[in-house]
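Lecture 7 notes: from sequence to structure.

We start with a single chain of 144 residues. Read the sequence below before looking at the structure.
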Amino acid sequence: MFIGAPVTYVVAADRHWISTSYDQAYGAFTRTLKDVGRPLGYLFLEKAFQLSTSVPAMSPTSQAAYWQRLLQFNQAEHQEKLDAARATAKQKLQTLQTDESIVEELKHLSDPIEEQALREESVKRLAPPDIQSRTEPALKAFAH
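Now the structure, written as tokens:
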């Protein structure tokens, strides 16, 4: 049913922790490995995941702004700022025509609320409008 359907699974986890877990759980198999010097857990990660990447660290400015928002959070004020940022993001997206231009624009934002709004609006804009109509028939077979 999903042949040809673009499906992606994202697993957010620490690769060192997963590797160590497999080393401990399946340590008895290490004797049969021919790849000397490579831990069993990392061999598992290579087979199980096609792509592995690190999540970039937050800049100190973004971290400070994040913590400040958490400590002095005012829901109404935050929502007002987010709504304004979403309106600005929608306007920006009218001039940004490609994925690459949107990613480039995100690199230049320093305000976390503006960044959140642009990311949200980008997802809405870049998602094909017919995604629901294409997805529902494929999933109906699994409704029971």
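Residues 1-54 form one domain. Keep this in mind for problem set 3.
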